[in-house]
Specification:
Helix content: 10-25%
CATH class: Mainly Beta
CATH architecture: Beta Barrel
Low-confidence stretches: 138-168, 173-177
Radius of gyration: 18 Å
Mean pLDDT: 80
CATH superfamily: Nucleic acid-binding proteins
Order of helices and strands: EEEEHEEEH
Number of helices: 2
Distance between the termini: 28 Å
Number of domains: 1
């Protein structure tokens, strides 16, 4: 897991981003009493040495438009018990405290790490690569056209052939196995 901080010269604030890889869990649509519905998921991020892996759980609000489309497509695979491993970028990390209601820790205070899921760089389902985001061209970074987002990358990796249309398909389709 990598944490980066950089200052935006145009807006005058600091970004804190967390990048890593982890397992996608608990994909859900949250419908608050006030405000608009949004998508959320948990990511169990891998950390530590490869021969003794630890996990850090992040409760994420899915904020990136492309990330939302990808998370929705992973929902069926996650609920079928498949291992969905993703490369991710999180932002705006904060903590939330709660009290355990039952179990061995009943009555104790716990802490939940919360963040916004901004970007998914790749997805593997049961070890098979099903999505790879396009490489971000350093020279094309100044291109502000909306076509530089999720539409272009899918053409070269067979992803768009299996999943045409933004809301169509899931990573559980026969074309992905």
């Amino acid at each position: 897991m990598k944490t980066t901080t950089h200052q935006s010269a145009t807006t005058g604030f600091f970004d804190l981003h967390i990048t890593g890889l982890g397992y996608l869990n608990r994909i859900r649509e949250v419908k608050p009493k006030r405000g608009e519905a949004f998508w959320a998921c948990d990511i169990a991020a891998l950390n530590g040495p490869a021969d003794d892996v630890g996990y850090t759980r992040f409760d994420c609000r899915v904020s990136g438009r492309d990330a939302e489309v990808l998370v929705k497509r992973c929902r069926q695979a996650v609920y079928q018990g498949r291992k969905v491993l993703v490369g991710f970028k999180l932002g705006d990390l904060w903590t939330d405290t709660f009290v355990y209601a039952k179990g061995d820790k009943a009555g104790q205070t716990g802490v939940s790490l919360k963040a916004r899921l901004l970007f998914i760089s790749w997805i593997k389902v049961n070890g098979e690569m099903v999505y790879q985001a396009p490489r971000r061209d350093e020279q094309g970074a100044g291109n502000d056209s909306p076509a530089g987002s999720a539409e272009q990358p899918e053409a070269g990796n067979g992803y768009s052939a299996a999943h045409s249309g933004e809301a169509a398909g899931s990573f559980d389709s026969p074309a992905m196995h």
